[in-house]
Molybdate-anion transporter (Diacronema lutheri), 463 residues
Amino acid sequence: MTGSPYASGWGTVFFVSVAAAAALSWRSCTAPEQHAGRHGPDGEFRAFQRTYLAVYYLAMLADWLQGPYVYALYESYGFSSHDIAVLFVGGFGSSMLFGTFAGAAADRIGRKKCGLLYALLYILSCVTKHYKDYSMLMLGRILGGIATSLLFSTFESWLVCEHNARGYDGAWISRTFSLAYFGNSVAAILAGVLAEAAAELKPLTPSAAGSVVHYGGFTAPFDLSMAVLVLLAVALAALWNENYGSTSSSALAKGAPADTLYKALRALARDRAILLLGACISFFEGSMYVFVFKWTPTLSSGAERPPYGLIFSTFMVLAMCGSSIFGIASASYRAESILLVTFVLAAGALAIPAVSSSVGINFACFLLFETCVGAYFPAMGMLKSQLVPEEVRATVYNIFRIPLNLIVLGVLLNSLSQFVAFSICGAMLALAGLCMRALSQMHVHGYSVRSGSDPSEEMDNSI
């Protein structure tokens, strides 16, 4: 497109979104103190929040720095679209196959240790990006898949366990989740700016004539990510204490990760609420990944190429709005109620693009969906903290990702039309809404889950 994108309709939407995010953020900051009860969060709790968020933000920044340039780097090395798709399949397949065992290891050997392992594996994955060698790049995808599984289970598991162990009010954790995912959106925007600046510093160059090792160009964002991962490891080692899936060190010493995996599968088999929760996660996050792959071609059907960078930033700002909306709503409504509304709105937002060819209508739907994404993650984090038994928390979180990775693999291995892709998204989100409705009804009829549920307690007593 010609001219500055900020002077276009895209820019107008961006600035309006920023203003809305600022207003909602200010409103959200006052909500917990107004509704948390007689005693709001104290200074000690806020210090604990900062301890978690400093580490979490670094972990997410390192991940976001890599995302925009993975495909571009492979393409610059001269690999075909098919070869690149296979590399992505390797990454998601690795996350699916090894992630569950990584979660079991986190519950058994400690969440802090596995946070450090995340940093190490992701650093090694970044190193492989300097090699114009398919086998080395595939190794990097496998390592990155395992690291991603640790990222989306270990850090949240540490937070929930530590929050409960320190005896903080259970309602306060919703504020931490809201801040975490608000900051995650900020990290995504910052990462996009930093990664682009790093990639422009020097063109992609072989280290020597005929060498497979390259530097500069699209490898630079991965070098920047490695620097952030080193900072993450230092911060994590200095700020976090260790916690496990069991508060008993003797119980910890007796078992192996395979035992933890068995206990997690047994908890899933015995507890219908956890199964419903897992279905909601798979359906929503599966539709989110389909959206990630399809939003660019859907908005490219107009006469001019849209400003993708500005659109991505707008999406992240709307996600910030969503996390702030959760922070406000959580003072008055249960997480199940918030998620039910979120799923209904998201289903409509992604069903419409299945039949719409209007760029403007589809863009508006995508903005609504990103707002739902921003509300979903803190709300789901809150609900998982209540439902999943502590001793198998990270393991169960990674089991939830198995069907999600299967959905992603299905998308990668098939060329889906806009109609088919968004029809599937709408159906999955409708199913997520039905599952959440059933879960909410269980709560209404007296299902209590702070420690898991009666089935989980039976599991604990039988081990």
The chain has a mean pLDDT of 88. The chain has two domains: 49-253, 256-463. The first helix runs from residue 9 to 35.
